[in-house]
C-alpha cells in the first residue's frame, strides 16, 4: 500500500491541509470516541504536523511537539490518529515511524514522551516506548504516560 506524506509547521499548512487534519481529528476523537473536548488547545501553532495520504486522501496524522510545550524537557508526539477507512492496513505503523524520524530531525536526539490510550500500549511498546506513569483518565478514556529513551 503506497502512502505519501508531508511534514509542515502549522503556518505552512494550506487551508485544505489544515481542514483535512482537523476534520479527521474531530471524526475520530470527538465523534467515534465520543469525547467532548477542546481539540484546539493552542499548541498546534507551535508544532509541526505530519500528514499521511493514500490516493490523495488524508489517511492519518500526528502532531510533533517540541520540547517544553507538553512536557518540560521532552519532545512529544500527539493527536495520533488514523482514518477508520484505512485501519488494519499498516498505516499506523508507517505514521509512527515517520513521526519518530521527523521528531529527531526537527528537535534533535532525546527522549520522546507521549500520553497514550491504554488499549494502544502494545502498539507503542513495539516502537520502544515504555510506561513511565500511572493510568489516568482523559476525557473518559484511560491513558498512560509512555517514554522512548
Structure description:
The protein has helices at 15-32, 91-107, 121-125, and strands at residues 4-9, 48-54, 57-65, 75-82, 112-117, 130-131, 136-138, 141-148. Strands 1, 2, 3, 4, 5, 6, 7 and 8 form an eight-stranded mixed β-sheet that branches. Strand 4 (75-82), helix 2 and strand 5 form a beta-alpha-beta unit. It contains three helices and eight strands; from the N terminus they run E-H-E-E-E-H-E-H-E-E-E. The longest helix is centred in the N-terminal third of the chain and has 18 residues, at 15-32. The protein is 27% helix and 33% strand. It is globular and about 40 Å long. It is of the alpha+beta class and 149 residues long.
Secondary-structure-derived class: alpha+beta
Q: Which architecture per CATH?
A: 3-Layer(aba) Sandwich
- Strand proportion, as a percent range, falls in 25-35%
Mean pLDDT: 94
What is the end-to-end distance? 30 Å
Number of domain modules = 1
Q: Count every beta strand, where a strand is a DSSP E run of 2 or more residues.
A: 8
CATH topology assignment:
Aminopeptidase
- How large is the radius of gyration? 14 Å
State the major sheet: 8 strands, mixed
Question: Runs with pLDDT <50, length 5+?
Answer: none
Order of helices and strands: EHEEEHEHEEE
Helix content: 25-40%
| H/I helix tally | 3
Choose one word for the global shape.
Answer: globular
The named CATH superfamily: Gcn5-related N-acetyltransferase (GNAT)
CATH class: Alpha Beta
SSE order and pairing:
Elements: E1 4-9, H1 15-32, E2 48-54, E3 57-65, E4 75-82, H2 91-107, E5 112-117, H3 121-125, E6 130-131, E7 136-138, E8 141-148
Parallel strand pairs: 4-5
Antiparallel strand pairs: 1-2, 2-3, 3-4, 5-8, 6-8, 7-8
Amino acid at each position: 500500500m503506497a502512502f505519501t506524506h508531508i511534514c509542515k509547521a502549522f503556518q505552512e499548512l494550506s487551508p485544505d491541509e489544515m481542514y483535512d487534519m482537523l476534520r479527521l481529528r474531530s471524526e475520530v476523537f470527538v465523534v467515534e470516541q465520543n469525547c467532548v473536548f477542546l481539540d484546539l488547545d493552542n499548541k498546534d501553532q507551535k508544532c509541526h504536523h505530519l500528514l499521511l495520504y493514500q490516493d490523495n486522501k488524508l489517511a492519518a496524522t500526528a502532531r510533533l511537539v517540541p520540547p517544553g510545550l507538553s512536557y518540560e524537557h521532552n519532545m512529544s508526539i500527539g493527536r495520533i490518529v488514523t482514518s477508520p477507512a484505512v485501519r488494519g492496513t499498516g498505516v499506523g505503523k508507517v505514521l509512527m515511524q515517520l513521526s519518530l524520524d521527523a521528531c529527531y530531525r526537527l528537535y534533535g536526539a532525546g527522549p520522546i514522551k507521549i500520553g497514550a490510550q491504554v488499549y494502544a500500549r502494545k502498539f507503542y511498546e513495539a516502537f520502544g516506548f515504555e510506561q513511565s506513569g500511572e493510568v489516568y483518565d482523559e476525557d473518559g478514556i484511560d491513558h498512560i504516560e509512555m517514554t522512548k529513551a
